[in-house]
Design a protein that fits this description.
about 300 residues, Rhopdopsin 7-helix transmembrane proteins
């Protein structure tokens, strides 16, 4: 090898999810519908929060940012995947692969911090209701969002700095529909044990640690004894939506990154939970399980009806 540029593959071949045309057509239809639902559902939440003054609160500010992250996270993978399902030869350039990896990990890191901020928001609202607006000030809410993006950037760059310098001069077939650190490191012409450990330590334990902390915080709130059972039952309705989203997001991350190099080829389907299913379900979960969002939705439809017919 004469230098780094000579050792880098110019492109990677994505093996995809299926080789059957019938299955490909089915997957194209499903993913297209999911992506449409993700875009419309999450942007609907963002528009509702902006347009409705009753939703100008810390909780809905964080929810709208979560919706934007879900749109971005899905956009990094699903359109490319839909395009590849209709092509026989699925390739992605080296630069495109590295960009996709970085975007995924930046947004996943930002979403982890934002979900933690939402848990803190619910803890404050339930356990310290009189101090809620002082603690969850607009400045602090913006700080949570900025911290999320900075954390995601550090999380992605700390792994990217190692991977970008690996010699990719051998096989270039990725057994997946998108690029990610575990499967890309396997293709490097070097002993990847140290890099595998770094990815597992960085991504895996970050996912698992955040997941258990969030679940413990929600359990603590649920069994908070200073409030009546009636109050806690109402609080649990709100918490159940947050818990559902946390479980849907973190369980696949934990399986993908805690033991990322001991997984079978079937585990490549786990990414669908974080990139397609969870972002599509989030608007439904937060709208159907949230009284304020229901009211805002009804007002929005009534307003549209009035503008159209009056």
């Amino acid at each position: 090898m004469d230098g780094q540029n000579d050792s880098l593959a110019s492109e990677f071949v994505l093996l995809g999810l299926s080789s059957s045309w019938e299955t490909k057509i089915f997957l194209i239809l499903i993913f297209s519908l999911l992506y449409l639902g993700i875009i419309l559902g999450n942007l609907f939440i963002v528009f509702s929060v902006i347009a409705n003054s009753h939703l100008h609160s810390p909780m809905y500010f964080q929810l709208s940012n979560l919706s934007l992250i879900d749109v971005g996270l899905s956009t990094t993978t699903i359109p490319k995947m839909i395009s590849d399902l209709s092509n026989e030869y699925k390739v992605i350039s080296f630069q495109g692969c590295m960009t996709q990896i970085c975007c995924i990990h930046i947004m996943v890191g930002a979403e982890m911090v934002l979900l933690t901020a939402m848990a803190f928001d619910r803890h404050t609202a339930i356990c310290k209701p009189l101090h809620y607006l002082n603690i969850m000030s607009p400045k602090r809410c913006v700080l949570f969002v900025i911290t999320g993006w900075v954390t995601g950037l550090i999380h992605a760059m700390s792994q990217f700095a190692f991977v970008i310098n690996l010699p990719f001069c051998g096989p270039n077939k990725v057994d997946s529909s998108y690029c990610d650190f575990p499967r890309i490191i396997k293709l490097a012409y070097t002993d990847g044990a140290m890099f595998e450990f770094l990815v597992a330590a960085n991504s895996g334990f970050m996912s698992m640690g955040n997941f258990f902390l969030l679940i413990l915080s929600y359990i603590f709130i649920t069994f908070w004894k200073r409030f009546s059972r009636a109050f806690l039952s109402k609080a649990f309705v709100t918490l159940s939506a947050c818990i559902t989203v946390v479980v849907l997001f973190f369980i696949p991350c934990t399986f993908l990154y805690v033991w990322p190099f001991l997984i079978s080829s079937t585990d490549k389907y786990l990414f669908l939970a974080d990139f397609a299913i969870t972002p599509a379900l989030n608007p439904v979960i937060y709208t159907l399980r949230n009284k304020d969002m229901k009211i805002a939705t009804q007002r929005l439809f009534k307003w549209n009806y009035y503008v159209r017919f009056c």
